[in-house]
């Protein structure tokens, strides 16, 4: 399910792949995994499972995904929108999935008296928000069926698994645990563990369907807290069959306000993603995102207006609560406020930048120092 458009401008501040894998998205294992003996499946090596998870295109399917996050954050106000910052960082919500192929799918995020849909049909994708009857029509270049990834919540286990694989390398210990049952399907469980203790991620467990090779669930465990996942994205029900054509098509409702965007922007040199103001410092499990602090106060890290979907007040209140719980820190990089949880660290500097990652605060401080001394591009009068 590559090429999913960003859900909202406020969602773009999500931390790197090694952090939330989600952007999005702890689901209690008892809600997904049937309590029974490990199913018998043919033996598979870690390399074979990694290859299965990394395949570009899986089989057609439809079902329900349950996402829940429990990151040890303070109580946050506002949960009415599944795409709000509050919803992304705490609580749980359901995503309905219809997948006919990489260019034909729908993701629906129902909420109380509202719904947000992401639909891809060929070279066009739509984001529809029912509360304001607003539609964003997104052009996907034909020559680029897999556009550059954007920092956005991972809405399905396939998306989450793809983001996790970006961190796999010599710094990762890879193993296969006992088989599990997820959404009624027998599955292998691939276990990835960062070797560097500066990563706050203890383990990432990916349940891989035993017959189709599809990721059914991704669980992220904080270092030293392997009893319960901090983040989990997994199917609660799944059917391997082609969904009806009507489920993967979209026509803007009558009277909808339509805006247009182009998803064909390329990343600029130095890790900066065009049009977002976001820069990646480091890589793999120690990747850190640098973004303007204005992204946290206005809801948009890049140029353009804040999306008016009725949740800006809730997001602002949630951000005030987060900032209020942060501690004042000083260092060679300057002065700022640090929010440190079991899985996420966020540093908001007085110089106007924010650094976020699933890393120890020391990694954020090093990133802030590097950013402070990096040469700035020349400006023309």
Characterize the structure shown.
- The chain is of the alpha+beta class.
- The protein is built from seven helices and 19 strands.
- The strands form two sheets. The chain has a twelve-stranded mixed β-sheet. A seven-stranded antiparallel β-sheet has the order 13-14-15-19-18-17-16, with helices on both faces.
- Strand 8 and strand 9 form a beta hairpin.
- The longest helix is centred in the C-terminal third of the chain and has 14 residues, at 312-325.
- The radius of gyration is 20 Å and the shape is globular.
- The N and C termini lie far apart (43 Å).
List unreliable stretches of 5+ residues: 2-35, 144-153, 266-270, 298-311
Strand order of the largest sheet: 7-8-9-10-11-1-2-3-4-5-6-12
Please describe the biggest sheet, giving its number of strands, its sense, and whether it closes into a barrel. Answer: 12 strands, mixed
What characteristic shape results from the CA principal axes? Answer: globular
Order of helices and strands: HHEHEEEEEHEEEEEEEEEHHEEEEH
Average pLDDT reading: 75
| Strand content bin | 35-45%
Evaluate the radius of gyration. Answer: 20 Å
Q: Number of DSSP strands?
A: 19
Helix content: 10-25%
Helix run count:
7
Distance between the termini: 43 Å
Secondary-structure-derived class: alpha+beta
């Amino acid at each position: 399910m590559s090429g999913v458009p960003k859900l909202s401008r406020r969602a773009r501040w999500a931390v790197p792949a090694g952090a939330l894998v989600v952007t999005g998205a702890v689901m209690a294992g008892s809600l997904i995994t049937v309590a029974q003996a490990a199913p018998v499946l043919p033996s598979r090596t870690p390399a074979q499972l990694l290859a299965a998870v990394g395949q570009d295109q899986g089989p057609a399917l439809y079902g329900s995904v349950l996402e829940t996050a429990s990151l040890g954050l303070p109580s946050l106000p506002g949960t009415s929108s599944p795409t709000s910052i509050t919803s992304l960082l705490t609580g749980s919500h359901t995503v309905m999935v219809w997948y006919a192929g990489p260019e034909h799918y729908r993701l629906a995020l129902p909420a109380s008296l509202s719904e947000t849909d992401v639909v891809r049909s060929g070279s066009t994708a739509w984001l529809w928000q029912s509360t304001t009857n607003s539609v964003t029509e997104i052009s996907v270049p034909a020559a680029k069926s897999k556009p550059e990834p954007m920092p956005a919540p991972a809405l399905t286990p396939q998306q989450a698994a793809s983001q996790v694989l970006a961190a796999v390398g010599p710094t990762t210990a890879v193993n296969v645990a006992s088989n599990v049952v997820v959404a009624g399907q027998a599955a292998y469980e691939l276990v990835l563990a960062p070797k560097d203790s500066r990563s706050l991620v203890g383990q990432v467990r990916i349940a891989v369907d035993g017959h189709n090779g599809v990721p059914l669930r991704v669980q992220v465990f904080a270092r030293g807290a392997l009893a319960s996942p901090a983040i989990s994205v997994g199917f609660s029900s799944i059917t391997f069959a082609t969904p009806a054509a009507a489920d993967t098509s979209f026509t803007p409702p009558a009277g909808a306000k339509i805006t247009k965007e182009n998803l064909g922007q390329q990343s600029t040199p130095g890790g900066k993603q065009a049009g977002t103001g976001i820069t990646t410092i480091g890589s793999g499990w120690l990747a850190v995102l640098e973004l303007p602090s204005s992204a946290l106060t206005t809801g948009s890290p890049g140029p353009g207006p804040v999306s008016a979907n009725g949740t800006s007040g809730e997001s602002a209140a949630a951000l005030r609560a987060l900032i209020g719980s942060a501690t004042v820190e000083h260092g060679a990089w300057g002065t700022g406020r640090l929010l440190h949880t079991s899985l996420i660290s966020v540093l908001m500097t007085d110089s106007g930048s924010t650094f976020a990652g699933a890393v120890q605060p020391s990694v954020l401080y090093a990133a802030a120092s590097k950013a402070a001394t990096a040469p700035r591009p020349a400006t023309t009068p």
